[in-house]
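Many introductory courses stop at the sequence. We go one step further.
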Amino acid sequence: MSFGIYVHIPYCVQRCHYCDFATFTREQAPPMSQYLQWILTEIRSRHGGIPKSTVTSIYFGGGTPSLFPPEYILSIVSELANVGFRFDHEIEITIEINPATITEETLDIYKKGGVNRYSVGAQSFNDRLLESCGRIHSADDTRNTLQLLTDNHLNFSFDLLFALPGQSLEDLRVDLNEVALFSPPHLSTYCLTVPSGHPMSKGRPLEDHQIQMFAEIESHLGQIGLHKYEISNFSKPGQQSRHNWLYWTNQPYWGIGLSAHSYLPHSGNGVRFWNPPTFHGYQAQISCDIDEWGYMCLPENQYEELSEREAAIDYCYTHLRTSHGIAESTLLGRFSQALIDPVFQQLQQLQQEGLVIYKPDSGHWRLTPQGEMVNNQVLSQIVMAI
């Protein structure tokens, strides 16, 4: 079984207009040196309640982890090893970086700490659209950062947003042509999602145009060898994100830092737990002197032991997003017949509507291209059936 560790670094130069993560500008947050000490304290005080499985991935997310001094990243990786975690010999260590926040010297330090994958928050190669999102980097900053990674023969991915206010199909095609120039091993594409009434909800492409954009993305990326393995993620063969694959396949992971979430296969159907989203709450909690820490030491509003129904919803929701789909054998092996019979009935109905397809050779249910376009609707119908 794979096991991952997520470390949240919440610092940003400026919050993006669409962001809903626990992130703060440096002026709003404690000194980075203080936050590092809290991270190390959490590792030392809580590792005993985490199974010492071999770690297959470590992911530094945020925020903008590349604002954190690179030596601090090394300290965290080193501390995880010091408390007894064994690292797989092919471990994937990813750090999220924003354009114009790294140098050759930074990369050299990261390499010493085992960082071997970089996720770049590009979002667009259009300066007008970047400004509308509240991004402070320019398209040239992105190009220079991607070129730096390419010149150093490093493994990298980057993000693209689409369905932005004022974005045309031609704007998207220009972005996709830029993607082709760098030929990344991996690319994540996200349709902008903001609530009704949000300033960025005005001027967005209509739903029909969003669907057209989605199809354009898949077509362009397929031509340069990037194939979809999850609704929003494309990669060259063997370059899938190992860490994100943990989330989509219900594998265990430990979340460290402000607001970080964890999942462990305890208590029959699994347990989820999470850290406070404020610096005060986080610092107070990880400073508690507890002899044998476990998730049940947390307040009741910070963990949930999943019921069979919740575990089934999690399984269907995450797996149907992937190219593997829902495995019939897993449903039959993990869940009661009374629970999954309505799921099979709903899947058969969705198959008649052309939204899912059943592969008898593998025993998997997968979204069709039409189903991918309305995946939230499909997933909602399955959830309601459980």
